[in-house]
Amino acid sequence: MKVYRLPYHLVELRPWPLTSAIRAIFIALGLINWLHFNDAILLLLGTTTMILSIFQWWRDIIREATYMGKHTSHVQGGLKLGMLLFITSEICFFSAFFWAFFHRRLTPSIEAGCTWPPISITTINPLRVPLLNTIILLSSGFTVTWSHHCLITKKRLKTTLTLALTITLGTYFTFLQASEYIESSFTIADRVYGSIFFVATGFHGIHVIIGTLFLLINILRNIKAHFSNNHHLRFEIAAWYWHFVDVVWICLYTSVYWWGSL
User: What is the pLDDT of residue 172?
Assistant: First the structure.
């Protein structure tokens, strides 16, 4: 009987895709409930259970890659392609926000006073916290690239230290952005400017948090010697994601913060 060796592995049946989808619905309903009725219980429940589901899903993937040897070179090629397609979909996602911004910036409506920023909106000074956040995020892009180089050259300690520095910069960026939101003179309900600003920068902030958690998992795996100089796909994917976050922020800073405040 001839045995065919396929360049991929069949994923075992697990409940995590189904449970994650159900919890995503809970998060969406909880967000609506929070915005309309100021009740965040369902949102917190959905978010907490989603984190648990993702943790167990990632745990199984790590076991497949590190201990079971199922992530061959062909499988890794498929995973890289999947990540590139995911980043492409994220580019399309943010393109909608930039489309809305450029449309309103170039042709402000009568409701906005035929001017941009709209009347009564005091914009955030782009040369203060936003510029600092730009420097922080660009620096984090440099440190994550440095960390990748250290991993390739088998300098595990330097890999851990530079990755920890990247996580620190990402966390500091999130802290500054949260402070900026608290001290802002306008809210998401203040006309089209507030809606576009908080939705675009808010979703970017969520991506920064996700990327920071992604890097945190990688630093734990590096400490446990899960990575080698030629087998560290999860590290590469995390670095790609982080650089994507950097590029989106540069576009946000130059358009929404700087050009949008003129």
Answer: 97
Same domain for 115 and 176, yes or no, is yes
> Which residue blocks in the chain are alpha helix, DSSP H?
16-37, 41-62, 73-106, 129-152, 156-183, 191-223, 233-252
Tell me whether residue 9 is in a domain: no
* 81 in the same domain as 50: no
Question: Nearest CA to 152 among 210, 239, 83, 85?
Answer: 239
| 41-62 vs 16-37: helix crossing angle, rounded to 10 | 160
For 136-154, how does the pLDDT look when each residue is reduced to its tens digit (9 = 90+)?
999 999 999 999 999 999 9
- Based on the fold, state whether residues 130 and 253 are members of the same structural domain: yes
Q: In degrees, to the nearest 5, what angle opens at C-alpha 169 toward C-alphas 165 and 171? A: 115
Q: What is the pTM of this model?
A: 0.88
Q: How many CA atoms lie within 13 A of 152 on its CB side?
A: 8
Q: Which candidate, 244, 259, 261, places its Cα nearest to that of 203?
A: 244
How far, CA to CA in Å, does 119 sit from each of 136, 179, 260? 32, 24, 13
Last residue of a domain, one of 70, 100, 115: 70
Domain-located, residue 199: yes
Residue 212: pLDDT band (50, 70, 90) is very high
If asked whether residues 39 and 140 sit together in one domain, one would say no
Domain assignment of residue 53, given as a range:
14-70
The per-residue pLDDT for 191 is: 82
